[in-house]
C-alpha cells in the first residue's frame, strides 16, 4: 500500500466510465471491421470485459489494500512476482506511450493543424505528472468535478445528432459475416473495455462495499452500450462508407450537428471537455506505470520517478507511431496478440495459484486506516508519494 | 525548439536530483533515477539523430505480425 487516500465505489464508477468512453469514442476499428454491426460487436465485448474485471476483483478481495505488483510476489514468490510486475510495467509503458502520441495527433488533426504535436505531448505528460504527484484522491476528485459536464454534453450532442440520423444508412443489420462481428468484438474487448486492468492501481484504495463490483460492472455495461450507440448513430449520420473511411468517425458525425443558422461547429464545445477526459485516461495509466516502476525498483519515494518517466514517455512517443493510421495497426496487429496475456492469462494464473496456495476462502484482514498510516509506507521500505 | 528547451531543463533537474540523492546517501534511488534518466536521454536524442518516427512500432510488428496474420484469419476468417 503506497498512499493513505481512499476512494468510494461511486468514485470508481465515475472514473471507470470516463476511462472506458473517452479515447474509445474516437477509434474506428469497430467501424472498419464491423460496419453497422459494430454496435452488436460492442455489446458482445461487455461480458468479456466483465470477466476480466471479475478476475482482478477476486484477486483484490483475496489481497486487500495491495496492488497487483505486491500480491503477485505473495502468490508466486519474489522473482516470478517481479517478472509479472515487469510485464505489467512494460504494458503500461507501451499503452501510455501510444496514448500520449495518439492524443497529440488527434488534437493536432481535428483542432490545431498548424501547431506541433510536441506541445500537446509535453502538456499531457506534465499534467499527468502533477496528478500522480497529488495522489489518487486528487485524481478521482477531478473526475468527479468534470464528469457532470461530460455527461450533460454527451446527452445534449447525442440528442441533436438524432436529427441528422438516417435509418436507411444502418440497414441491413447483421449484414457482415459472424467472423467479422466476432473479430470486431474482440478488438473492442482488447481496446478499450479490457483496459479496466489499469484500475489495478486504484482498486486497493476503494472502500469495501457490496456495491463496488456491481458499480464496476455497471460502468463496463454502460460504456459498452454507449460505444454501440456511437457506432449506430455515427453510421446513421455519415453512412457506412464515409464512417469507415474517417479516422475519427464520431467527431465527423458531431460536425453535422447544427441548430438553425446560428449554432454550428458544436464539435469544438465537445472537444473542450473531451480532451480533459482523455487526459484523465492517460493519468490512470501513468499512475499504474509509476507505482509499478516504484515497486519493481524498490525506491523509497515515487515523486523523483515521476518526471523521468514523463520524459521517457515523450521520448518514446516520438518514435512509436507516425499518425492515427499507425494506431489502427497497433491495435489490430500488436495488441491483438499481446493483450490476452495481461487481460486473461496472468490474472487467471494468479487466481489459480492463490487458491492452491492459500485455500479457497483466503481473505487477508483489511487493516484499519490508522494502522496503515503507522505501519505502512516508509518503515516497510515501500514507496510513498 | 520547445523539446530542446524542455530537455535542457530536465537535464538541470537530473543534476540537482543526483546531487540530492548522493548527499542523502540514497544510493538505490540514485541508481534507479540515473537509469531511467539515461533511457530518457537515449529516447530523446535518438529521434534527433534521424530515428524514423514509428520505428518502435515496426520493431514490435516483427514479433507480433506473423502471429496476428496467422491466427486471426484462422480464428475469425478476417484478413488483418
Short note summarizing the structure:
Chain A is mainly alpha-helical and 385 residues long.
What is the straight-line distance between the termini of chain A? 11 Å
Helix content of chain A: over 70%
CATH topology of chain A: Amino acid/polyamine transporter I
Helix content of chain B: over 70%
Q: How many distinct folded domains of chain A? A: 1
Briefly note the structural class of the backbone of chain A: mainly alpha
Overall form of chain A: globular
- What is the top-level CATH class of chain A? Mainly Alpha
Most extensive protein-chain contact, per-chain counts:
A-B, 42 and 43 residues
**Count of spatially separate domains of chain B:** 2
Ranges of chain A where pLDDT stays below 50 over 5 or more residues in a row are 370-382
Structural overview:
The complex is a heterodimer of chains A (385) and B (80). Chain A has 15 helices and no strands. Chain A is mostly helical and 385 residues long. Chain A has one domain (9-364): Up-down Bundle (Amino acid/polyamine transporter I), CATH 1.20.1740.10. The two termini of chain B are 39 Å apart. The mean pLDDT of chain B is 87. Chain B folds into 2 domains: 1-49; 52-80, no CATH class. Chain B has 3 helices and no strands. In chain B, helix 1 runs antiparallel to helix 2 (27-48). At the A-B interface, helix 6, helix 8, helix 13 and helix 14 of A face helix 1, helix 2 and helix 3 of B.
What are the SSEs and their pairings?
The complex is a heterodimer of chains A (385) and B (80).
Chain A: H1 9-21, H2 29-34, H3 38-62, H4 68-76, H5 78-110, H6 117-134, H7 136-162, H8 178-190, H9 211-238, H10 240-245, H11 249-254, H12 267-297, H13 303-320, H14 324-358, H15 369-375
Chain B: H1 2-24, H2 27-48, H3 55-76
Helix pairs in contact in B: 1-2
Give a quick set of tags describing it.
heterodimer, A: 385 residues, mainly alpha, Amino acid/polyamine transporter I, 15 helices, globular, B: 80 residues, 3 helices, 0% strand, elongated
Amino acid at each position: 500500500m503506497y498512499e493513505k487516500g481512499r476512494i468510494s465505489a461511486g468514485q470508481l464508477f465515475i472514473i471507470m466510465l470516463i476511462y472506458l468512453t473517452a479515447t474509445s469514442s474516437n477509434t474506428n476499428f469497430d467501424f472498419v471491421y464491423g460496419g453497422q454491426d459494430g454496435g452488436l460487436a460492442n455489446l458482445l465485448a461487455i461480458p468479456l470485459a466483465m470477466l476480466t474485471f471479475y478476475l482482478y476483483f477476486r484477486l483484490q478481495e483475496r489481497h486487500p489494500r495491495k496492488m497487483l505488483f505486491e500480491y503477485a510476489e505473495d502468490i508466486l514468490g519474489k522473482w516470478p512476482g517481479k517478472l509479472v510486475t515487469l510485464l505489467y510495467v512494460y504494458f503500461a509503458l507501451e499503452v501510455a506511450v501510444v496514448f500520449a502520441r495518439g492524443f497529440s495527433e488527434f488534437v493536432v488533426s481535428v483542432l490545431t493543424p498548424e501547431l506541433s504535436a510536441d506541445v500537446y505531448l509535453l502538456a499531457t505528460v506534465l499534467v499527468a505528472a502533477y496528478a500522480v504527484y497529488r495522489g489518487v484522491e486528487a485524481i478521482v476528485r477531478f473526475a468527479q468535478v468534470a464528469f457532470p459536464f461530460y455527461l450533460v454534453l454527451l446527452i445534449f450532442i447525442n440528442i441533436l445528432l438524432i436529427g441528422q440520423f438516417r435509418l436507411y444508412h444502418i440497414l441491413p443489420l447483421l449484414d457482415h459475416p459472424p467472423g467479422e462481428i466476432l473479430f470486431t468484438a474482440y478488438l473492442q474487448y482488447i481496446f478499450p473495455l479490457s483496459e479496466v486492468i489499469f484500475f489495478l492501481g486504484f482498486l486497493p484504495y476503494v472502500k469495501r462495499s457490496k456495491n463496488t463490483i456491481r458499480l464496476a460492472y455497471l460502468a463496463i455495461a454502460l460504456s459498452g452500450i454507449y460505444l454501440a450507440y456511437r457506432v449506430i448513430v455515427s453510421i446513421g449520420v455519415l453512412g457506412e462508407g464515409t464512417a469507415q473511411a474517417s479516422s475519427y468517425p464520431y467527431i465527423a458525425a458531431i460536425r453535422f450537428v447544427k441548430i438553425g443558422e446560428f449554432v454550428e461547429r458544436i464539435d469544438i464545445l465537445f472537444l473542450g471537455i473531451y480532451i480533459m477526459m482523455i487526459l484523465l485516461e492517460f493519468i490512470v495509466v501513468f499512475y499504474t506505470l509509476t507505482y509499478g516502476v516504484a515497486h519493481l525498483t524498490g525506491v523509497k519515494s515515487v515523486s523523483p520517478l515521476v518526471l523521468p518517466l514523463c520524459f521517457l514517455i515523450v521520448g518514446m512517443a516520438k518514435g512509436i507511431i507516425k499518425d492515427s493510421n499507425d494506431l489502427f495497426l497497433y491495435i489490430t496487429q500488436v495488441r491483438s496478440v499481446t493483450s490476452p496475456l495481461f487481460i486473461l492469462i496472468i490474472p487467471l494464473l494468479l487466481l489459480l495459484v492463490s487458491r492452491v496456495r492459500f485455500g479457497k476462502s483466503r481473505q487477508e484482514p483489511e487493516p484499519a486506516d490508522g494502522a496503515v498510516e503507522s505501519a505502512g509506507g516508509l518503515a516497510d521500505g515501500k514507496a510513498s508519494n | 525548439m520547445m523539446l530542446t528547451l524542455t530537455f535542457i531543463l530536465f537535464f538541470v533537474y537530473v543534476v540537482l536530483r543526483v546531487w540530492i540523492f548522493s548527499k542523502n546517501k540514497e544510493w538505490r534511488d540514485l541508481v534507479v533515477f540515473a537509469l531511467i534518466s539515461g533511457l530518457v536521454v537515449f529516447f530523446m536524442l535518438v529521434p534527433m539523430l534521424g530515428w524514423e518516427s514509428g520505428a518502435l512500432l515496426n520493431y514490435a510488428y516483427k514479433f507480433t505480425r506473423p502471429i496476428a496474420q496467422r491466427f486471426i484469419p484462422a480464428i475469425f476468417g478476417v484478413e488483418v
